[in-house]
Design goal:
By secondary structure, this protein is α/β, with parallel strands linked by helices. It has helices spanning about 40-45, 50-60, 85-90, 140-150, 170-185, 210-215, 240-245, 270-280, 300-305, 325-335, 350-360; strands at about 5-10, 15-20, 25-30, 65, 70, 80, 125-130, 155-160, 190-200, 220-225, 255, 285-290, 310-315. Helix 5 (about 170-185) links the parallel strand 8 (about 155-160) and strand 9.
């Protein structure tokens, strides 16, 4: 089902395309290997190419051969292949988690693979929307879904007034919404609900809500939606706008910092070293937006942020309860950046998370 075209077929391999949309296809390559080669094939086709080249070079120095069928000695005797771990062990290496197979520093012993962030470490989601703006579920429904995932905290962050297309809330509507969130928090047991907002960073660098309203929120995600990439007279660059938001005492986190939409919109021209430095100085979190369209921050920026001591916030930007399932994509992105549990605010304990949230506010 879903196959549009068969590109190639054979006893052990085949290629087909599946439909993604009316005018879009995705090629899928299928391979069948013997059981004794499964681990080798899994490792080989996981890649990356650069990682595989390094492994083959290591094998070559021992006069061995490594391919998708296994690891073989000079006489073609199979040394490993059924399990990935066997191959790494034979080469004198620890098993490398797939997201880190980039030929960067995974061979240098600098990363404690056992300390890598795991999906099971995530206990909170601090960026989601409800029917108050452009979401499809109520506060209580989002809370119930989060509780079912074992989360201890969520933050409701509906859009601010300038996001007209997303039914952004006027000041008066947001004030009422904050009361509604807090009322729901009293009714819902087993998960803490933070009253927040996703506040637009406007083209002039100001925020879409006044400080007195932001101060009423428990958690504020500041994001650029309007006039992405616009500069010129009277307009600040994306970098200047982001830095201005970071300096605001009430801004807890910068949402999807580069604004990219994968295969749809290029990232804004943001000076990430400057943004990272400012975030570290002000104790502002930077978001890894886990929505599959975004994955923003990307892995290179995650590494940059961690090197500067920035705390990350991995959020789904959920617009429905089903969107919570996208958290795994954010965690995979964090893993590619070698993030650990202690680097991520929503992997903290309830007390640790609240302490981190109140830190910038001076609370």
């Amino acid at each position: 089902p879903g196959v549009r075209r068969v590109l190639a077929s054979g006893a052990t391999k085949g290629s087909v395309t599946v439909g993604l949309a009316e005018d879009r296809e995705l090629q899928v390559d299928l391979r069948v290997v013997p059981r004794e080669s499964f681990g080798a094939a899994l490792q080989y086709f996981t890649g990356s190419k650069a990682h595989n080249v390094r492994l083959r070079e290591m094998a070559g120095k021992k006069k061995w051969k490594l391919n998708e069928y296994g690891l073989f000695d000079a006489k073609d005797k199979a040394l490993a292949g059924e399990e990935e771990e066997e191959i790494y062990k034979a080469l004198g290496l620890p098993w490398v988690p797939p997201p880190l197979r980039q030929d960067r520093d995974e061979f240098e012993g600098k990363i404690d693979f056992d300390d890598l962030l795991q999906l099971s470490d995530i206990r909170a989601d601090l960026h989601m929307h409800t029917i108050a703006s452009d979401g499809r579920n109520t506060i209580e429904e989002m809370a119930a879904a989060a509780k079912a995932l074992g989360y201890h905290t969520i933050a409701i962050c509906d859009h601010s007034k300038s996001s007209v297309i997303a039914n952004g809330l006027t000041v008066e509507r947001m004030k009422k919404h904050l009361k509604d969130i807090r009322a729901a928090a009293k009714r819902v047991e087993g998960v803490r609900i933070l009253a927040g907002c996703e506040c637009d960073i406007l083209p002039d660098g100001s925020l879409d809500y006044p400080d007195d309203l932001l101060a009423e929120c428990d958690w504020v995600v500041a994001s650029i939606h309007l006039a992405q990439g616009r500069g010129g007279t009277g307009k600040l660059s994306a970098t200047e706008r982001t830095l201005a938001a970071i300096e605001n005492r009430w801004v807890s986190c910068i949402g999807h910092p580069t604004g990219r939409l994968i295969n749809r919109r290029e990232a804004m021209d943001v000076d990430m070293p400057a943004v990272v430095a400012a975030a570290a100085k002000t104790h502002t979190c930077l978001e890894i937006n886990a929505a599959w369209q975004r994955l923003d921050l990307k892995a290179d920026h995650v590494r940059m942020a961690l090197a500067a001591g920035v705390t990350l916030s991995i959020n789904t930007d959920a617009h429905s309860t089903q969107d919570f399932l996208q958290m795994r994509y954010g965690v995979l992105t964090a893993q590619r950046g070698a993030a650990r549990k202690r680097d991520v605010i929503n992997a903290m304990t309830p007390a640790g998370l609240l302490k981190r949230v109140s830190g910038k506010r001076g609370g």
